[in-house]
Every structure is written in C-alpha cells, then in structure tokens.
Amino acid sequence: MFRLSATIGLAAVLALPPLALAQQAPPAAPSWQQGRPDSMAASPLAPHAPRMTVTAPDRLPTSALRVPEGFKVEVWAHGAPGARMMAEGPNGTVFVGSRTIGRVYAISEEGGQRRVRTIAQQLNQPNGVAVRDGNLYVTAINRVLRYDGIEGKLENPGEPADLTAAFNLPTEEHHGWKFTAFSPEGRLFMNIGVPCNICEFDRDRFAMIVSFRPDGSDRRVEAKGVRNSVGFDWHPTTRELWATNNGRDWAGNEMPHDTLLRIRRAGEDFGFPFCVGDWNDPAASERRQCSEFAQPAASLGPHTAPLGARFYTGSMFPETYRNHLFVARRGSWNREQLSGYDVAVARIGADGNVTGIEPFLTGFRDEANNRFLGRPVDVLQRRDGSLLVSDEQNGAIYRISRQ
Amino acid sequence: MILRDAVVAAALAAAVAFPSAAQDAAQGAALAEARGCGSCHGAKGIAEQPPMPSLAGQPAEFVTLQMILFRERLRDAPPMPDLAQGLEDGQIEDLAAHFAALPPGPPPDRGEADAGRAGEGAALSQRMNCGVCHLPTYAGRAQIPRVAGQREEYLVHALTQYREGTRRGSDTNMNAVMYGVTDAQIAALAHYLAQR
C-alpha cells in the first residue's frame, strides 16, 4: 500500500473525476501536452525560468534558511550558475554538474576559501557526475566522458576519454539528463527517463534505472517503470538501492505524488505509465492492476520534484540521523501552490520501512507569497560529516554542520 | 479540476524567483550602443531587416538566458556567439534590462494580414496552447519570449529550428511542442503571431 500524506487521503484520490485526454493535433508526439486534460488547457503553469548568471553572495537567501536546532547552515561556495549534482573526489574536490548552462564545475578548498573552476563546458546537460578511482565520469544525455586523474589536473583537464559509443545511451533529450553514481560493487548506475510527460514508449528502453561496468559494457536493468529518477543511493547496511522518482505533470494539484522507491530486487517494475502506487493513471493507454507493480516506499508529495538523495553515514550529526536518507526537493512548477523547495529526511525503520518524512532544511519557499528563493537539487555528505546542498537557482552550495 | 482565475493570476504573479542583482537599463543602453546591437536589431530594438529578431519589449530573463547560451556557445546563431564572448554576467543583465524597457512594436516593413492564414494560425495557436506560456497577448514572460509582432520570417526560422531540434531553449519544451508540425502550419502560426 502506497501511503499518502495525511492531507491527501485515499478518498480524495478516488474522488478525482476521470480526466478527458486532450486531443492534440500532432499524433503520437512525445509532447509535454500529453496527459493534459481539457479542463487544464488554460492553466498558466509553466516551468520556472532557470537563472544562468552569477548570484552575488549578498543576494543569496542564506538568512532565510532554517535547520533544526543544533545545526547551522552557511554558504560553502557560490558563483557556480546552474549547480546541480555533486560528487567528491578522493582529495576532497567537489565536482558539480549542471543542465542548461552546459558546464561541469570543480570546487576545491584553498586557504580556507573555496575556489570554483569550470573544468568542462559546451556540454548538453551534463547533469551526471561520478568519481571512481580518481577518475571523473561526466554524463551529458548520451555522452559519457571520463577524465582520468582529474584532481591532478584541474587547471587543464585535457581531452577526456570518450565512452559514448560503449554506453550507447538513447539520444532523446527530454528527461534524458542523467543522475549517475557508482554502486558499492563499482558499477555505474544511471536513470533513463521517459522522453515525454506521459506517453506510450518502449518500456525496455526508457523509464528505467540501469547499470554498467565502468567501461560501458554489461548493461543491466536495475528498475523498470520509473518515470524519471534523478537521485539515488544505496542503504549503508542492507545495500538496497533507494531512488527518488518524479511523477507526471497535468494531473491536478494533488496528483500524482512524487515517490521514494526501495528497490529490493534488480529489475523490479514500479508501474509507469500505468500506476503510481495504487493510483491508476487515467491518462495511461491501458488499465492495469496496480498490484502487479512494486509499491513506493513513501510519498514525497505532489510535484515536489525530489532529486538528489543520500544516506547519512557520518559522525558529525547526531546518531539519530545515521543511515537515514536526506532528500533534496527542487520544488514544483505544475502546482498552483508551490510545494517542495527543501531538504527532507526520510526516516527508515529497522525493518527497512519508511517511518516518516521530516523537513530538515527549509526557507527556500516563501509560502505567504507563493514564491521561491532557491532550488535545492542535491545533497552530499563530506568526509567530515557535514552536508552540502546545491542550489541550482542561485548557483550556490550551502554547508550544514553541527554548531 | 477547477481553476479559479484569481487564484491562478495570483499564483502566476507570485511564483517567481527571488530577483537577481539590480540591472541597469541605462548602462545596458550604453553597452548596446558601443557594441552596435542596433545595426542588426534596430536602433530601438525593432529589427528592420530580415532575418533579425526584434528585441524591444522582450522579457529581461529571456534576453539574459539567450545571451548566456550564445556566450557559452550552446546556441548557434552566427554571429551572436562570437559577439557575446567576454561579456560579464552583469553586462548581459544590463543589456537585457535595456531591451526589456524598450517599447515593442511591429517592424516597419510588416505587410498586410492575410485573413485566411491568420485565422489558420490563430486556430493552431489555440490548439497548441501557445498563449498559455507566451500569455494570451503573446507578450511573453520570464524565460518565455514575446512573439507578438515579431518579424514573420524570423518566427518561421525559430519554429523550424525547434522542430528540427537545432535549437533549444532553457528546456526542451518547445522541441516537444513543435514535434510533427508541418511547414504550412509553421507559416500560418508565424503569420498570425507577426500580425499580433
């Protein structure tokens, strides 16, 4: 059973009227308009504009940010427009991917200050960054580049090894940006999002999490029916894969919920485009029994856009955070009242079930004025146990530590 | 789902990001003069010759984003990528403020409207929901450009590029929207919008 948040009961789900499919002119197009009912045709909701210019430190929303008592949040780095996914090298360099601005940043500590370098540019949505054996892997839609010994040549990274042909990824751009991470066994995992809002597609090519050997060989399907997962991590003790997943747009303010997935067995099917938990999507091309599919571990709220998610394994935070999952929720666009725009903690019980979702870093969302001050995309635990949070809208990275 | 207009309008007005650093339209005007922007885009931001786009009244965020895409060589529209090299973020924001402040209007050489093609374009626009993002007046907002009164041949060029996948915006929505749209439909849309 998919647990919905207290405010959205099952009755509300069942009470949703059947949605009429919009009849659009271009047939079978991978269009964002698909699944948009006539009743929402005039909705003015549209994706928020990204900001690709540098936000000066005194314009960052740092003073509005809130963390639980005993923690503090401060600016760790700024001047990295579009900063998204993060990965740390063996020597402590933090590599940061982006989307629209096409850059990969390297942020290093020099004399107590952070130095931001652009080490790659002109890439097409290089969202995926992962480090293994001192080598940086950058994934930009279907391109996979490896920068060997990157921390020894930040000033002049040189030409990377091009692994694009070996990985042979789909070239579709819509939801084609990747989250990448190396598993405990050393395989490179990534999402392959669905190239539309909701549509008919090859379920053996899209809406998946897949893994490869680092050279791009031996592709394996790790999860299916996952619309677009742009963040995952492995439980520190069970080694199960936990992934965030973004639900579709244009099904109303309260549906569907974005979800947290616990993948217990490789290849599990989570039901997209047919089901989200026990919600049978009326826009899907056919009706399926939702009980056929693996169920989400938790709801992360409608349209909240949960992205980067990492288990906390450090010793700086209280023991009560150990082995629980921090989730960055970038925040909604397809919802009249903004939702998300925070970092939450998914509490995971001894039995591996989620016992609650708690706010941890808040203040990016100005509820009274229904506006946002920043968009958290990823979280990264550093070796000292502090937690970094990237803010794509402001090109900044915050550090959360114990006071 | 019932959308109440007032709620929607409030959400639309308010769901914007924290304002960026203060931009200076006067500095932008001086920079535009020094860089000779007007020789192609018109002295007052209204392009007088094909195939240049008019920039007067474009949302500042749209101009800023496009200039960044040029500078980063992520959008190819010669000679703009070369012209954008070396521009600081603040200079780009000043330029954007300048062009956003100029009063928009049609180009001086705009022809007469063809009622048939304009009607076809209007129906297409309605069906494709163009006015949802670009607003019913097609004045644009934030990263979404003003298309009302834009040069017709430029609109054909831009819409074709989106359809062919040779141009993308700050996301890929326009590519998805234009998927499968025919040349004749693009021509009708461009004519309708240029006449707005």
Automatic annotation (TrEMBL), chain B:
PTM comment text: Binds 2 heme c groups covalently per subunit.
Lineage: Bacteria, Pseudomonadati, Pseudomonadota, Alphaproteobacteria, Acetobacterales
Binding site for heme c 1: C37, C40, H41, M80
Binding of heme c 2, residues: C130, C133, H134, M174
Superkingdom in the source lineage: Bacteria
Signal peptide coordinates: 1-22
Cellular component per GO, a single term: periplasmic space
Cited Gene3D superfamilies: Cytochrome c-like domain (1.10.760.10)
Name of the protein in question: Cytochrome c domain-containing protein
